[in-house]
Amino acid sequence: MEVKEPKRRIPLVGILSGMISVASHLFRKPVTVQYPEVRPYEPERFRFRISLKLDDCVGCTLCEQVCPNGSIKMEKLVRENPRNKRMLYPDVNFGTCTVCRNCEEICPTTAIYLTHEFETARTKNSFLYSPLELAMDEKEVKK
Ligand code: SF4
Ligand code: SF4
What is the pTM of this model? Predict the structure, then answer.
């Protein structure tokens, strides 16, 4: 069997093409931003943090039933709300939530909905949000 000889390469061509490639990026607009001083671009349809309007929740448990990975559990919360006689409200575990939006779509009263908020870093090792925390602005949540 005939053994093919490796192709001969012209010296420095590889280095020059690498340098041209690097130089072509020098004049392009940078894609990085100085976060957190500068907030990154958020696409219009981006969604993450779930919020809850406590007064609109009727405790129907549909959001819990439709969640594909059990991220929502109903919790008893004693508060005045004539629309929610069983006093059941959802809590959400963002550690397992896949942001599928099923809960938002099934909710008959639009009480639960996804927002643009994504800054949910915490010092405690739990991403479980109680109904009261879901109703708060993210800046008010004790982390
Ligand atoms: S958030 Fe909506 S779907 Fe979930 S229990 Fe309340 S009313 Fe029902
Ligand atoms: S967005 Fe999807 S995964 Fe997250 S809590 Fe709602 S139903 Fe569950």
Answer: 0.80
